[in-house]
Amino acid sequence: MDSSTAKLPIREKIGYGLGDVASNFVFHSVNVLLLFYYTDVFGISAAAAGTLFVVARVWDAINDPLMGAIADRTNTRWGKYRPYLLWLAIPFGICGYLAFANPQLSGDGKLIYAYITYFLLMTIYTAINVPYSALMGVMTPSSVERTSLASYRFVGAFSGQLLIGMAALPLVKKLGAGDMATGFKYTMALFSVVAVVLFMITFATTRERIAPRHEEPGSVSIGKDLLFLCKNRPWVIMVIAAILTLSNAAIRWAVTPHFFKYHVGDDGSTAFWFLDRTSLMMTTGSLAFIAGIFFTGILSRRFGKRNSLIGLTILNALTLLAFYFIPPSAYGTMLVVNAIGCLIAGPTPALVWAIYTDVVEYGEWRFGRSTPGLAFSVATLAQQLGIAIGGGTAGWLLHFYGFQANQQQSESAISGLRILFSLLPGALALLNGIVLLWYPLTDAMVKKIEDELAVRRRDAAPDPV
């Protein structure tokens, strides 16, 4: 498939984007709601929950690269990566439901249950999301089309997050009829079913087009593949950036319900339409984020992917820092500043994942080895490590500042919530922008790599019979 004729049909781009809607119906619910569910509903301490989020990543350090290597070595009539969307959609939905199922257990039993279900969910998430991410790299050889595909993906991702922010807590309230534990259980059952259906649609509507180079079984080990990745400087920089990005996002996600419940004053009553203050903040932020995604192509063409990502990251960091200075009575100002920050940040995920495909192709061009599954799996590991650092930090610092669930908070706890919601995420985002200054691949170099790889692939293709 020549890069000049590698344009994907809209139907396929939409189908691919639905995969991230599916993922976020469960995964974003975990990111935004699980710490709150553990502390205020299930009855686990913030410190214990924070430790759980970090300990789970020890397994991810093994599980993520292993899944990437397995996916790279998978061969079926459906391709290398697509089959996992079919095979694991139902297990993913089941594990998402179990994480919020709220069984009646003792204190120790609840903690054990939380460990088991969270480990299972993260394992299945890796097993389905790593192939899903790698799929983007084999659907088309065109960097421009991959940027477009990434935009569709993250319109899907943040549409899923919009629905979570808009509907999750109101559904918990409605379906639970005042019982939050029952509400969480039924809400996650609904979200899990939707996720399964959407993953099936993604499987049915996408295709793999870039055939792998033929290699003898066992000719290249996983260890050598990892060594090639470690020598890939652009990829290493993006992995560091991923850790910082998701650390700052995870801290903010984890404490958002706490911040509005205990600092701003959100008692769950309707603030607008059927939305409480927390849901309204997440909904308007998600809408702004989705709007921002549509500027991805314009910014990429005008400034290049690298420069756009650096500038947007630093500007978003400033909006996060600004939240520290907004008093709790100025809820309207919070809505505006949050929307501006989300609009600015909107193009960044699409730019990041388009850049990931560029650095994978750089690795193939530089070292003669294409390992999209492994590269994306370690990128996913970096993001999950960032989420673990962020989630763990949020839980530990809530405990450190004296947070007590469902009680009037001390001045120390309120101060801690403000730091966790603004200063700490903003500082991490600013550091991320600084790290990205070392990313070396310009769009001109990416185009050169793309053209040279197209020639290599054409020359390596078997002669038609």
From TrEMBL:
Transmembrane annotation, as ranges: 44-62, 83-100, 112-132, 152-172, 184-204, 235-255, 280-300, 307-326, 332-356, 376-399, 419-439
NCBIfam families cross-referenced by the UniProt entry: gph
Keyword Cell division set for record: no
Domain called Major facilitator superfamily (MFS) profile: residue spans: 1-443
Coiled-coil stretches: none
Lineage of source species: Bacteria, Pseudomonadati, Verrucomicrobiota, Verrucomicrobiia, Verrucomicrobiales
UniProt keyword terms in alphabetical order: Membrane, Transmembrane, Transmembrane helix
InterPro entries, alphabetized: MFS_2, MFS_dom, MFS_trans_sf, Na/Gal_symport
Species whose genome carries this gene: Luteolibacter arcticus
Keyword check for Membrane: yes
Protein family membership: Belongs to the sodium:galactoside symporter (TC 2.A.2) family.
Protein name as it appears in the record: MFS transporter
PROSITE patterns: MFS
A Pfam family recorded for this sequence: MFS_2
